C-alpha cells in the first residue's frame, strides 16, 4: 500500500513544477521508516485514529531520515506539517528529539530561495 501511495504522489510533484533532482527517492524514505517494524502502519493508524501510537523504534527511524525525506514525508497528502509536529511531540514523550518543525523544501533557483530551516 505504501509503495502505491509513493508512486501516485511522485508524479504529482513533477506536474507541479518540482524538479525530481530536488526530491528524495521516496522508496529510500519509506525503506528507512520500514526499518522499524510496523512503523508505517503505526503512522497511518495514528493519523486515521487521531491518536498517536508508535514505539521508540519508529521515532528513531523518523529521526534518522535525512532532511529531504522528512520534508517530503510531512508535506504531502495527509502527512501534513501539523501531523509532523504531533509526531514530534509524541516522540518527545518517548525521549526522542525530532527537529522543531517540518517545512517544505524549496530548491535554490538562480541565487534565490533555498532551504527553510
From TrEMBL:
Gene Ontology terms: biological process: double fertilization forming a zygote and endosperm; regulation of double fertilization forming a zygote and endosperm; regulation of protein localization to cell surface
Matches recorded under Pfam families: Prolamin_like (PF05617)
Residue span(s) of domain Prolamin-like: 29-91
InterPro entries listed in its UniProt record: Prolamin-like
GO CC annotations, alphabetized: extracellular region; vesicle
KW Signal (keyword) present: yes
Keyword Signal carried by entry: yes
Keywords: Signal
Top-level taxonomic group: Eukaryota
PANTHER family, alphabetized: EGG CELL-SECRETED PROTEIN 1.4
Name the record gives this protein: Prolamin-like domain-containing protein
Amino acid at each position: 500500500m505504501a509503495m502505491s501511495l509513493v508512486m501516485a504522489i511522485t508524479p504529482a510533484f513533477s506536474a507541479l513544477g518540482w524538479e525530481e533532482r530536488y526530491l528524495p527517492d521516496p522508496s529510500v524514505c519509506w525503506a528507512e521508516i520500514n526499518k522499524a517494524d510496523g512503523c508505517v502502519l503505526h503512522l497511518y493508524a495514528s493519523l486515521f485514529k487521531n491518536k498517536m501510537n508508535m514505539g521508540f523504534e519508529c521515532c528513531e527511524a523518523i529521526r534518522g531520515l535525512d532532511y529531504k525525506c522528512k520534508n517530503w514525508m510531512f508535506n504531502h497528502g495527509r502527512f501534513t506539517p501539523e501531523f509532523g509536529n504531533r509526531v514530534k511531540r509524541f516522540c518527545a514523550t518517548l525521549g526522542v528529539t525530532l527537529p522543531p518543525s517540518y517545512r517544505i523544501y524549496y530548491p535554490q533557483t538562480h541565487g534565490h530561495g533555498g532551504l527553510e530551516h
